């Protein structure tokens, strides 16, 4: 009698699902309560003193904070500026980082080691040490008080970390895959775009979400380079709201909600790729 073929053990899948459930529960416990308090505070009526204890359901519920935040803080214009910066900088940063990481993965081992060491050294340089020379360059070019200085770091992949992550991802692909591309006479650019990049979509999703959050919440660069209020991004607009009277804290919290929602949406859209990478 022929024995029934035994399939793969479901234990690894159960363990993976368990870890994913635990991870989701941890994220919910850490991040959801502050978000609920943020939304509840934004729905409090402005002008009243802060409550002695946090309230999940304010009494009375009011949307006046959002109306005043949009009016006093110029959040609509600031949101548009932040969207412009993010729409240009995030895809450009991911494309440049992925292309640089792919090039590193295809270099000779000795050259690759040198480039990796140089990237690690660049990663250890504090960003604040580059503020003065960067400002001098942009001022010499007449690009201060524009959105250009907020976008140009994407031309370098934004951070050496992104390049190194892509390098490790492309290097993990089978060598036979690259050999097959050579047999098919695919150019390096076509191999990167049509073969390698689609196979590291979880990495792309994760780095896209990370780049968007860092770009969206960038406060230091706009503070240094942007002076015209019409060019303020959301972090600068929130800073203006924070200078209001303390009894108007719902106005600032309403602005914080407006600034937080896009980052949450991007994370929700990306999480399926970098948490459920087998789908």
Automatic annotation (TrEMBL):
CC per GO annotation: plasma membrane
Pfam families: BPD_transp_1
Keywords: Cell membrane, Membrane, Transmembrane, Transmembrane helix, Transport
GO BP annotation list: transmembrane transport
UniProt domain ABC transmembrane type-1: residue ranges: 79-270
Leader sequence residues: none
Cellular localisation: Cell membrane
Coiled coil region boundaries: none
Domain of life: Bacteria
Topology versus the membrane: Multi-pass membrane protein
Keyword Nucleotide-binding attributed: no
Classification via Gene3D superfamilies: MetI-like
Family stated for the protein in its record: Belongs to the binding-protein-dependent transport system permease family.
PANTHER family on file: ABC TRANSPORTER PERMEASE PROTEIN MG189-RELATED, ABC TRANSPORTER PERMEASE PROTEIN MG189-RELATED-RELATED
Descriptive protein name: Carbohydrate ABC transporter membrane protein 2, CUT1 family (TC 3.A.1.1.-)
Biological source species: Micromonospora nigra
Lineage: Bacteria, Bacillati, Actinomycetota, Actinomycetes, Micromonosporales
């Amino acid at each position: 009698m022929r024995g029934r073929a035994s399939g793969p053990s479901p234990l690894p899948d159960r363990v993976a699902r368990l870890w994913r459930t635990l991870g989701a529960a941890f994220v919910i416990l850490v991040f959801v309560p502050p978000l609920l308090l943020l939304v509840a505070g934004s729905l409090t009526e402005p002008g009243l003193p802060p409550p002695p204890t946090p309230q999940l359901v304010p009494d009375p519920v009011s949307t006046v904070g959002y109306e005043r935040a949009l009016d006093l803080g110029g959040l609509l214009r600031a949101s548009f500026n932040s969207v412009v910066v993010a729409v240009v900088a995030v895809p450009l940063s991911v494309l440049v980082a992925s292309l640089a990481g792919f090039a590193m993965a295809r270099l000779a081992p000795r050259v690759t080691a040198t480039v990796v060491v140089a990237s690690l050294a660049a990663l250890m340089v504090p960003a604040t040490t580059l503020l003065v020379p960067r400002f001098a360059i942009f001022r010499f070019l007449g690009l201060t008080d524009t959105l250009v200085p907020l976008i140009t770091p994407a031309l370098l992949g934004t951070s050496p970390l992104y390049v190194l992550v892509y390098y490790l991802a492309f290097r993990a692909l089978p060598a036979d895959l690259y050999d097959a591309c050579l047999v098919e006479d695919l150019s390096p650019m076509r191999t990167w775009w049509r073969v390698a990049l689609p196979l590291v979509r979880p990495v792309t999703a994760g780095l896209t979400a990370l780049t968007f959050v860092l770009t969206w919440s960038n406060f230091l660069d706009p503070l240094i380079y942007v002076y015209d209020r019409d060019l303020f991004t959301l972090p600068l607009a929130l800073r203006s709201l924070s200078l209001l009277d303390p009894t108007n804290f719902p106005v600032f919290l309403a602005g914080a909600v407006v600034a937080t929602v896009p980052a949450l949406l991007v994370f929700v859209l990306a999480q399926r790729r970098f948490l459920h990478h087998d789908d």
